[in-house]
Design a protein that fits this description.
- The complex is a heterodimer of chains A (111) and B (116).
- With 111 residues, chain A is mainly β.
- Chain A contains no helices and 12 strands.
- In chain A, strands 2, 5, 6, 7, 10, 11 and 12 form a 7-stranded mixed β-sheet that branches. Chain A has a 3-stranded antiparallel β-sheet with strand order 3-9-8, with no helix packed on it. Chain A has a two-stranded antiparallel sheet with strand order 1-4.
- The mean pLDDT of chain A is 92.
- By secondary structure, chain B is mainly beta.
- In chain B, 0% of the residues lie in helices and 52% in strands.
- Chain B has no helices and 12 strands.
- In chain B, the strands form 3 sheets. In chain B, strands 2, 5, 6, 10, 11 and 12 form a 6-stranded mixed β-sheet that branches. Chain B has a 4-stranded antiparallel β-sheet with strand order 3-9-8-7, with no helix packed on it. In chain B, strands 1-4 form a two-stranded antiparallel ribbon.
- Chain B is globular and about 45 Å long.
- Chain B starts with a strand and ends with a strand.
- The chains are: A mainly beta (111), B mainly beta (116).
């Protein structure tokens, strides 16, 4: 079974802090994704990566950056957290001809 | 523009009733994938089905069935004899390109509540 692991289920940070959300997958997948989920808006794509050191902007990249130094790890970075970034963050990975597999999500609160 | 619409925000039915979740999509691509995911209260997204745009056959898996109609750009999901454990948020989604290994566009979700 594919395992996508997000480092924290719940996280509380303060405005202006630099926040790192980590995601690790164990199936050697090339494609990894970060989404945020908000009520009534579904899942919106922030960034995705097709390979190590490659990244592409999704639909809502503003205020975020990503890092993919190793194939199994895809990090989402909030450079200076703001209250409107309070949300559920979901990481996903996908192999060829397979559906996306999601992590359990990180519920991030910015105070 | 690619878009997925789930017009039903919330549905509540009594256990053992049948329920259909609607999904309408828009895309200019001739080849695409459609998905349904379930998100139970615990929060994880569970993959239910993926359908290639060339395959319009309906699919049944136990109490779940999916009706794909390209003519109306719809991919509806029916749960027969619903159970309390079916309570969750259900997302319909569209993958823009021929490969399912591309970004996926999600609908806003339908919250399904099954009352005992």
């Amino acid at each position: 079974d594919v395992k996508v692991t997000q480092s924290s289920r719940y996280l509380v940070k303060r405005t202006g802090e630099k926040v790192f959300l980590e995601c690790v997958q164990d199936m050697d997948h090339e494609n990894m994704f970060w989404y945020r989920q908000d009520p009534g808006l579904g899942l919106r794509l922030i960034y995705f990566s097709y390979d190590v050191k490659m990244k592409e902007k999704g639909d809502i990249p503003e205020g975020y950056s990503v890092s993919r130094e190793k194939k199994e790890r895809f990090s989402l970075i909030l450079e200076s957290a703001s209250t409107n970034q309070t949300s559920m963050y979901l990481c996903a990975s996908i192999g060829s001809n397979q559906p996306q597999h999601f992590g359990d999500g990180t519920r991030l609160s910015i105070l | 523009a690619q878009k997925v619409t789930q017009a039903q925000t919330e549905i509540s039915v009594v256990e053992k009733e049948d329920v259909t979740l609607d999904c309408v999509y828009e895309t200019r691509d001739t080849t695409y994938y459609l998905f349904w995911y379930k998100q139970p209260p615990s929060g994880e997204l569970v993959f239910l089905i993926r359908r290639n745009s060339f395959d319009e056959q309906n699919e049944i898996s136990g109490r779940y069935s999916w009706n794909f109609q390209k003519s109306t750009s719809s991919f509806n999901f029916t749960i027969t004899a619903s159970q309390v454990v079916d309570s969750a948020v259900y997302f319909c989604a569209l993958s823009e390109a021929a490969s399912s290994a591309s970004k996926i566009i999600f609908g806003s979700g339908t919250r399904l509540s099954i009352r005992p």
